Amino acid sequence: LFDALADQAALAIERVQLVSDVDRARLAAETDRLRGALLSSISHDLKTPLASIMGSAGTLKDFHENLDDAARLELLSTVIDESERLSRFIANLLDMTRLGSGTMEPNYALHFAGDIVGTALSRATKITAGHVMRVSIPQDLPMVKVDAVLLEQVLFNLIDNAAKYAPENTAIEIRGWADGDSIRLAVIDEGSGIPADDLERIFDSFYRVRKGDFVRAGTGLGLSICRGFVEAMGGRIKAANRTDRTGAIFTVSLPIAVQQPISQEIK
Ligand code: ADP
Fold it and tell me: Where in the cell is it found (predicted)?
């Protein structure tokens, strides 16, 4: 990721033929500053779960004889949860690298978006266990030409956020509909929503609304990956707040590939 960013910065600097030495020095300093900020953010996100894993595993090793089953189980759960968090973070970084290096070539095929919503939901069953899930995708929703893996990741990230930022026992709704020459997929939650000033910025890498809130494990990468993937497939993604009550709405628009579903064409 650093190399991809540094290459991009170096290219940008080279392209500006007329910059003076002073400007050049300033640009180089800015690149260094960005690299530093990125490095410290990434180190923090790697170090925090690692510290928990090492602490819990160390306690288990040193005191296992004095611990009851419940305490041992709790320490083991911490090891597993924090390992999952680490692995999610590393997967996010790899996705970012693919996007940043411009090597991502979507693997297009015709899909019924409802199927991809279904796969994303089944991957998220553990995450959404405490929420009430409602899905309404009409069977006659037009097909879209997308990379199923990328769209599934986008939906997974949005569902993961809805479950993370909206309290337990609230509803998460996934709705699909056709609108002109696109289909829309919305993930709607009953959380506290997003401050108006942050609605665009949340799509920036490493941007988090509640900076000190480490209770909700996150990297600030999920939504920038969503935007990168959706735009790579020729679609758009936007965030809004609900008007009927508090809560966020994330809407993905994707161009319709075939006006009628294949099943109807065959009839
Ligand atoms: P992460 O969740 O790892 O912090 P994201 O890029 O997925 O990173 O989200 C960026 C920020 O946007 C989050 O930290 C959170 O502040 C805000 N956010 C995302 N989804 C929601 C949501 N459904 N409700 C409220 N805030 C949200």
Answer: Membrane
